[in-house]
Amino acid sequence: MDSVGHLDAGDGALTILFGAQETSDFWIDGPQDMVAGVKDHLPAIRRLVIYLDNGPNNSGSRTQFLKRMIEFADWSGLEIRLVYYPPYHSKYNPIERCWSVLEQKWGGALLNCLKVILQELGG
């Protein structure tokens, strides 16, 4: 089971999405679901800035990722800015600190099924 984390820099809210496989599509589905949930309540928002680590599924050279990002921008009507951290600079990415804290909490448990995820998140 793969996961993707979204950290809202505005309020510090962390969202973790779990899925069968981490793909470029999986990376876009999360922000799209998030925007769908708040779109009507925050009509003044015009821009979404997304910070990325330039990993294999969200690279600026991945055509599927960019295709889905353009579709997301068209659907949402938002100006979307992609900001990539330089290679090997994950220490500057705030989400990496979240992962570190969660890994310590989980004690290295392999989150490979829903039962384990719920057990670790609830404990």
Structural class: alpha+beta
Q: How would you characterize the largest beta sheet?
A: 2 strands, antiparallel
Q: Percent range for helical residues?
A: 40-55%
How far apart are the termini? 19 Å
In terms of per-residue confidence, which ranges show pLDDT below 50 for 5 or more consecutive residues? none
Q: Overall pLDDT, averaged?
A: 77
Secondary structure tally: strands: 4
Rg over alpha carbons: 15 Å
Write down the secondary-structure element order: EEHEHEHH
* Number of helices, where a helix is a run of at least 4 consecutive DSSP H or I residues: 4
Main sheet strand line-up: 1-2
- Morphology call: globular
Entry keywords:
123 residues; single chain; two-stranded parallel sheet; 4 strands; two-stranded antiparallel ribbon; alpha+beta
Explain what the structure shows.
With 123 residues, the chain is of the alpha+beta class. The protein has helices spanning 24-38, 63-76, 94-106, 114-122, and strands at residues 2-7, 14-19, 47-52, 79-84. The strands form 2 sheets. It has a two-stranded antiparallel sheet with strand order 1-2. A two-stranded parallel sheet has the order 3-4. A hairpin with a 6-residue loop joins β1 and β2 (14-19). α1 runs parallel beside α2 (63-76). The radius of gyration is 15 Å and the shape is globular. The mean pLDDT is 77.
Fold topology:
Layout: E1 2-7, E2 14-19, H1 24-38, E3 47-52, H2 63-76, E4 79-84, H3 94-106, H4 114-122
Parallel strand pairs: 3-4
Antiparallel strand pairs: 1-2
Summarize the structure.
The chain is an alpha+beta fold. The chain has four helices and four strands, in the order E-E-H-E-H-E-H-H. Helix 1 (24-38) runs parallel beside helix 2 (63-76).
